[in-house]
Amino acid sequence: MIAPSVRREWIWALRGFLWLLLAGAYLALERGGNAYLQRLVILFLINLMLVVSLNLFTGFTGVFSLGHIGFMALGAYASAILTLPVNLKAVNLPDLPAPLASIALPFFPALILGGLAAAIVALLIGIPVLRLSGHFVAVATLGFLVITRVVLINAEAFTRGTRTFAGVPPFTTMGWAALWALLNVYVAWRLKHSPLGLRLLAARDDPWGAKSVGVSIGRMRLIAFGISAFFTGIAGGLWAHFLTAFSPNAFYFSKTFEIIVMMIVGGMGSVTGSILGTLLVMVSTEALRNLEPGFAVGSLTVGPLYGLSQIGLAVLLMLLMTFRRQGLLGDRELRLEAIAERLERWLERRKTAIEAPRVRKADP
Amino acid sequence: MKSISFAPSHTMGHPLREGAGISSPSIPLLEVEGLTKRFQGVVALRDYRLTLQEGEILGVIGPNGAGKTTLINLLSGFIRPDGGHIRFRGQDLTRLSTHRIPKLGIARTFQNIRLFPSLTALENVMVAMTVHHPPDVLSTLFGFGPGHRRVRMLRERAMALLEQMGIAHLAHRPSSALSYGDQRRVEIARALALEPSLLLLDEPTAGLHPEESEALIDLLSRLHRERRMAIVMVAHDMPVVMRFCPRLHVLSSGTLLAEGTPEEIRNNPLVLEAFLGRSGRSGAA
Ligand SMILES: Nc1ncnc2c1ncn2[C@@H]1O[C@H](COP(=O)(O)OP(=O)(O)O)[C@@H](O)[C@H]1O
Ligand SMILES: [Mg+2]
């Protein structure tokens, strides 16, 4: 609800300020060269993509997916196989089939192909699975995650099985990650705020009501699933070219859990909530992780606490389920318009308070 | 076959509303024959038949559990019949997916209102507008340019509909925050956004105060005069039905008990027995 009273200048000023702030922070990081912070930011942007994409499906359709990390794995392995230098392929992947063995693609096309691979698999499994009712989709996607892992472990010619897939070129810069994360957030935002998004939300809110206005529930879910898997695959590709070495273990329950907690903390169905959720969870787990080797409070020394960050995540989830099930934002968005309106009202109130301190406060 | 004796008497001149039968089409808008639906042994609707012309209004009354909602669900494709045909402008509906039916020009409302609670009143209507103006890539990806103009056009038309329903001032409220009566109006506006030639209303006045239902019926009469769509209205509320519907069907335990003008129905001994003898008017809920 955008109150017409809010002056557009306010919104533009806020918007400009926010962009300047972001650009400034980006440049400072890029120039400042704090490697730890840079890595953390890249990881944040990749997690953000995973969370926004999962939310684009689960939040917008109301159907839980437990298999999204499988799409991340597909994007990671597919793009890494494509960019791996030919001489490394000869050593690490001697059994790779002919056309793949002799090529090494640049980063961008490899990423896109990784995303497309994930999207195509999503459409193939989505057509039979997405007609099921909500809970069964969750179970079926969990099955997909398990199958993906088994396939990755057994397709040794492509993945080296359980051994580490190493030597991936470190192509993922902060710029690449920021660009893709921005695009992902933009697409999710547009999807929610476009006519297509209205149909998606209608299908989620009331399937019968949606059918009565000609919305096909299955098709809506499939569109969201495909787009979501595409960006999840891209995030996997970025992640692979960030870490440069990984094994199938990276793409399993603990990552799935992490992403789901981030989404729930932010609010299912909220794009801006996903940003907040990812930020909050990463900051708190990072803080807890730094405590894991042990720490001292005054004269009290605490020994190593490995797993503290995982426990922290689990406790956070339980607290949320008890006290604020909808997460920080529910399915609402943090809107500049609303912030500008509040700011303006607050200033107005200050002014009247100064001019006439006894005047009764206007109703909010 | 009952339908044979029924069809000629109908085409010879049923009490159509003023102006509704200007063009006399060779095929009726809706033709239903032998329609039957069972739920685990319970026959919810048995061998139902109906011929409806363009622009005609039919009222369907009957006690609770008579099969009225089942009839609406069948006509709108939400459930599949166990037997019989539903032909809309000659096309058989019984094999179509539910979501394909609105595009043909059949709209419905629900006995228990089914709005989209996280959308505003306006957005609820806009969703229905996308049936005839499907979302394209431009309007999905860009909030400016030609895509935006399309969305603005949808928004303006949806707004005009809310205005017609007298709830334009509620356009930007979440639909879940509206009163029951206003939600009903949003639901009807949403159905009208499909530009239907057949509107199916399942107890549109249920849960409304008498004045509210009066107002709603006035509104429906006006909309019918302006738009000329055919209407099948299920209702409990006898005065409302008698005022709005020139032709009535009485259902009881899934069978078509009687048919005729409100006057004929009022004096039909079968109906009196079924209604007053068993559940009475207080059965309305
Ligand atoms: N989905 C269903 N499953 C089982 N029985 C149903 C279902 N829908 C309706 N019925 C039964 O069919 C009969 C007619 O119901 P309904 O059409 O809802 O009646 P009305 O709308 O006239 O009150 C009732 O006996 C009801 O219990
Ligand atoms: Mg009913």
Automatic annotation (TrEMBL), chain A:
| Localization, UniProt | Cell membrane
Membrane topology annotation: Multi-pass membrane protein
TM helices/strands, residue ranges: 12-29, 41-63, 69-88, 100-127, 133-152, 164-189, 222-247, 259-283, 303-323
Q: What is its main location?
A: membrane
- GO molecular function, a single term: branched-chain amino acid transmembrane transporter activity
Q: Which InterPro entries does the annotation name? A: ABC_transp_permease, LivM-like
Give the record's GO CC terms. plasma membrane
Q: Its domain of life?
A: Bacteria
Keyword check for Chloroplast: no
Keywords from the named record: Cell membrane, Membrane, Transmembrane, Transmembrane helix
Kindly provide the name given to this protein in its UniProt entry. Branched-chain amino acid ABC transporter permease
From TrEMBL, chain B:
> Which ranges carry the ABC transporter domain?
30-278
Q: What keywords is this UniProt entry annotated with?
A: ATP-binding, Hydrolase, Nucleotide-binding, Transport
One Pfam family for this entry, by name?
BCA_ABC_TP_C
What enzyme category does the UniProt record give?
hydrolase
Q: What is its EC number?
A: 3.6.3.-
GO molecular-function annotation terms?
A: ATP binding; ATP hydrolysis activity
Write down the CDD domains for this protein, in alphabetical order.
ABC_Mj1267_LivG_branched (cd03219)
Q: Which InterPro entries match?
A: AAA+_ATPase, ABC_AA/LPS_Transport, ABC_transporter-like_ATP-bd, ABC_transporter-like_CS, BCA_ABC_TP_C, P-loop_NTPase
Q: Name one GO cellular component term.
A: plasma membrane
List the protein's name. Answer: Lipopolysaccharide export system ATP-binding protein LptB
Q: Which gene encodes it?
A: lptB_7
